[in-house]
Amino acid sequence: MPSLSESNNTDDKSFSTSVQSTDQLWEPELPPYPIDTHHIQQEHLCTWPISNSVEMNTLDKPYDSKAPVSESYDDLITEEEVIADSTSYHPSSHLQTLEDLPQGRHLGLYSTIILFISRILGSGIFSITSGIYIDCGQSPFLFFLAWIIAAIASFGGLYVFLEMGSLVPRSGGAKVFLEFIYTTPTLLATVAFSIYSVMFGFTISNVLVFGEYFIHALGITITPWRIRISGLLFLYGAALIHGVSVNHGVKVQNVIGALKLVLVVIMVVMGLYVTILSPNVTKLQSHLAWDDFWQVKAKTNLSSFSSAVIKASFAFSGWNSVHTVSNEIQDPIRTFKIAGPVSLAIMAVTYGIINLAYLIVIPGQEIVNSSTLVGSILFERILGKSLGRHFLTFAIAICAGGNIFVVIYTISRVDQEVFREGYLPFSKFMSSNWPFGAPLRILILSCAITTVIILGFHEGDVYSYMVSLEGYPQQIAIALIAVGIFIIRKRYPDLHAPIRAGYFGTIAVLLISIYLIVGPFISSTSPNPKGLESWPNYGLVGSICVFLCVLYWAFMFRLLPWWGNYELVVEETTLSDGLTIKSWIKVPCPSDSHHGPLLGESVG
């Protein structure tokens, strides 16, 4: 349950009600960008019905500062409490103001580009090629089409996020964007996506790929348990560095990011070497012929192709995560405007060249059988077994490891934003930066979830299944944010974003996302990876997870207050390091109030 507690405030009877109707209560009246509502330290959310016939008195008394507060380490907390009038409360009213965290703004343009590239260039291009090729029926044409669709969707999605990020320049990414766009039903979008973010706050694929490539580079016999243990040990080390020192964690990310840039150059040079020069020069037989380019060699369908596009999108997936750390970026609007497109363009060109090299150098059947080692096979063929296997395979492991560093860094920031809002149990404890000035507790939670999943599931191609499962709810969020671009432009016609997404690009993102959302359900065959056909459809599992998040919101913020005849007050507190967090306090409704509409029913 969220951190709800009973209030003993004797002034509870003076809670005001609004002359506005229920439909009007939560509609924001935002002034032109930017706005400043920083003076509101505590907000008032009324969960009981409001009728046009009910009078209200403005509540201008400060909240009782003697309300009970949890003990333990929280004796470091200092509280600043002011209750805003219930009619002025809106959950997204503060989102257009810049917010500085205790960590400070320590990421410049170079660090942000490194963050983008480190997040994008992970395990995808080296490991999921085999799965994409299989899903496309071993057709080179469909293979490249899947990558092209993923690249278009990524560029379109990037500019959608850039526009929303320029309007809402705060940490949280998709969470704060949805909160800003979808204001009714109250808190639905933000709570549902927040719970989803914590549920999927793990990094399965990169851990497995790091473990496999690391073992392969050492020349040790590869076993599932060695892969898992190696990957998990690296994850724990990365979490410890980030959890003990923010600055040292960023420095390690930048070093690994520089190594990734070197690897990108090597990959491009090798790809051009193979694709431009003739086989007589390279001494490598070409396995890609024009006559076979259009041929579909194995069974495929629309559902499998949608799975291939999702896997390819996973290789670009870093573009939608860097906004989660906006509060730590210097001049975030300008920095994102430059860093985002530059980073994604670099990676799109690199992926195109390296994928062409895969099909030229490696026979199709060998790609099918290579699982997650297709990148290593390519390097061995071009540079020889010794250099290709040991040096570059180890470099790929470092790339996957660098992705682990960035992923858990962004996960910790998103989850910290969620816990700061008080939607989940132990929010005050989990969101704190104590004792090292970093979100160590959230990093431990992410490591625990990752460990349970990796050690608990062994059969079949769990790697590809988790990639598809992670990506499915993200496509739902991206589709909702793409629709939100048009909602915001219509709602606030005078609000001009510093960065604008193109109309056709936004439509393309929306259509591709819808296709990826419905794709797993429109085929009679399972879209799951080979060996996991008996598992539930990943689209169905992802949809159930989203539904459970919505159900949590309905239960905690609609049903329980309605049944218990209480309302919720947001109590905002400030920790000793300056970090602000919220707690939801139960306050009994006035004795003359009545149970009102449930889950959006109209007032009678």
From TrEMBL:
Keywords: Membrane, Transmembrane, Transmembrane helix. One of its GO terms (biological process) is methionine import across plasma membrane. GO terms for cellular component: membrane. Residues 15-24 have a biased composition (Polar residues). The keyword Aminoacyl-tRNA synthetase does not apply. Signal peptide: none annotated. The chain crosses the membrane at residues 107-134, 141-162, 187-215, 258-277, 342-361, 391-411, 438-457, 472-489, 501-523, 535-555. Residues 1-30 are annotated as: Disordered. This is Amino acid permease/ SLC12A domain-containing protein. It is a multi-pass membrane protein. Pfam families: AA_permease_2. It comes from the Eukaryota. The keyword Transmembrane applies. It is found in: Membrane. GO terms for molecular function: L-methionine transmembrane transporter activity.
